[in-house]
């Protein structure tokens, strides 16, 4: 189980390896990637910043909550910070489970909670300037 | 007593700094820090209801008493993913 904030490019193979287990017949992998559009218009790049120690603690807490809801799953979440170009991976969530239902449900749960419970912020960079993405009040 | 403030996302843009050291009267509460922040940075006022304050990495309420060396993070709405 692994919840990490990193400024290095994300190695999806490594994330998958972190959850692999002979007793798991299903692995769900979610990737968040940088899109070239937002509601504001064209996007050239994104810059993410995190309150790193708290964000990693939150990721671990979310992982533990997922395990209590779906016993037997294995999870890994890696979130990138710094400047990311279009198509780069900002987030990877991997969940392994004996069966597929729990893997899909837990991955979805983790994704939604990362978006409102983890102290990470996203700055959109375009030719018009830089704008912080309006987010969700941090769930406490 | 000395405390450290950390600013993130749009709050960092508004204050223009990632960190600040503040001298506070001993026994100050987190609520006093919030009030001082809003007084010092009027542009934070519209965000007051959505700003969360954490002390040493844990979200705390306004009544929380602060101690020498505490790290107070000012956390605007989040947008990871």
Description:
The complex is a heterodimer of chains A (140) and B (81). Chain A has helices spanning 12-19, 52-69, 100-117; strands at residues 2-6, 26-33, 37-38, 41-42, 45-50, 74-80, 82-85, 89-97, 120-126, 129-132. Chain A has 140 residues and is an alpha+beta fold. A four-stranded mixed sheet of chain A has the order 1-6-8-2, sandwiched between helices. Chain A has a four-stranded antiparallel sheet with strand order 7-5-9-10, with no helix packed on it. A two-stranded antiparallel ribbon of chain A has the order 3-4. In chain A, α2 packs antiparallel against α3. The mean pLDDT of chain A is 97. Chain B is of the alpha+beta class. Chain B is 22% helix and 27% strand. Chain B has two helices and five strands; from the N terminus they run βαβαβββ. In chain B, β3 (52-55) and β4 form a beta hairpin. The radius of gyration of chain B is 12 Å and the shape is globular. The mean pLDDT of chain B is 96. Chain A binds chain B through residues 32, 48-51, 53-55, 57, 79, 90-91, 111, 114-123, 132-138, 140, and chain B through 6, 8-10, 12-13, 49-50, 52, 54, 57-59, 73, 75-81.
Please list the strands of the largest sheet of chain B in the order they lie side by side: 2-1-5-3-4
Distance from N terminus to C terminus of chain B (CA atoms, Å) equals 37 Å
Multimeric state: heterodimer
Q: What percent of the residues of chain A sit in helical stretches (DSSP H or I)?
A: 25-40%
Shape of chain B: globular
Secondary-structure-derived class of chain B = alpha+beta
List keywords for this structure.
A: 140 residues; alpha+beta; four-stranded mixed β-sheet; four-stranded antiparallel β-sheet; 3 helices; B: alpha+beta; five-stranded mixed β-sheet; 5 strands
Short description, anyone?
Helix content of chain A is 31%, strand content 39%. Chain A is α+β, with helices and mostly antiparallel strands and 140 residues long.
